[in-house]
Amino acid sequence: MTATPAELAEAYVTSWQERDFTRLRSLLADDVSFVGPLATIDNADECVAGLQGMSRILEKIEVKERLADDSSVITWFDLHTAAADPAPTANWMRVEDGLITEIRVAFDPRGILAARG
After folding, report:
1. Where residue 65 falls among pLDDT bands split at 50, 70, 90?
2. Contact 32, 103 (CB under 8 A)
3. Within a 13 Å sphere around the CA of 20, how many CA atoms are in the beta-carbon half?
4. Among positive and negative, which fits the CA dihedral 15, 47, 99, 77?
5. Taking every annotated instance into account, which residue ranges of this chain make up the domain SnoaL-like (predicted)?
6. C-alpha dihedral sign at 18, 8, 3, 33
7. Average of per-residue pLDDT across 39-62
């Protein structure tokens, strides 16, 4: 049975928080496109590597709302990190054939960037 976009988004967030990168990779199409304030990536392995890097400072993801239709989902959450105050974040995903094919993330990265020095 194929997961819905909302189920895939939930699995993505849960896998990232639990640092289960094998599971997270299984949710992504090989040629997933990721665009966010800290990276632009065009394949699943680099996407997972970027999320692994962020997980070093990730404390928790506090989901506020999730809106989904047949092919996409937006998750609104507070990104809690050890580096900065919580960052309100919008994460949009497109789903095709049961896999995440596109991810667009919007948040203010200034606190994280300032902590990097």
Report:
1. very high
2. yes
3. 11
4. positive
5. 9-103
6. negative
7. 96
